[in-house]
Write a structure and sequence with these properties.
Blueprint: E1 2-7, E2 12-19, E3 22-30, H1 35-50, E4 59-65, H2 69-86, E5 90-94, H3 95-101, E6 112-117, E7 123-128, E8 139-141, H4 146-150, E9 159-162, H5 166-175, E10 180-182, H6 191-201
Helix pairs in contact: 1-2, 3-6
Length: about 230
Amino acid sequence: MKILALDTATSGCSVALWRDGETSVWRFREMPRGQSEALLPMVREVMTEAGVGAGDLDLIAVTRGPGAFTGLRIGLSTARAMALTAGLPCLGVDTTDVVARGVDASRISGDLLVALDTKRVDFYAQKFSARHQPLGPPRAVPPGGLAEFVGDGPGRRPLLVVGDAADRAVQVLSEAGIPSTPADAPGLPDARHLAEIAAERWQPGQVPTPPAPLYLRPPDAKIPLNGGRLRS
């Protein structure tokens, strides 16, 4: 099985080619902007090095959010266009799932919290079990609501936190009296982990619904009441 995985959801750009149970070729760049220029050349590099063409692929996988509005649209539009052109299925995976998968399960003694930077004061957050199973859907959570979102109980093991907002989340939780520690793992989604998840979830012959972006809050930019027209 050959899977091409693409991610531009946050502050990175990565592409991976999954072949026969492992990542064959991979590219990753941390970049807060510029994914639209970097993604397709990165795809070409990966496929050329892997020696495969679009017709050799079985599936295209892409992160669908939460994440940056522009980044999500870049990744999703590219993945869907490639899939449509090549007649391939396209699978969307939550960004938080991909970030969680970057943490070695053997290092998770309690629950895992993914905390992503929204470029505002809140977090994109989701809880996972030690086996990377979601314990609820991802949500946009204000700092004052993070302790309630995480929950608490007697004898709780320290919460492991991963993501590009992990340090800030740990500070907020510490101030609320909830023990937590940042994970020793990348805080950005990685196409290698995306490909691994896609390989587990998709079976040859399945035709998944084309992925749509997962937005957890409305965009910052809004259309003016007069539609942008000059008032006379």
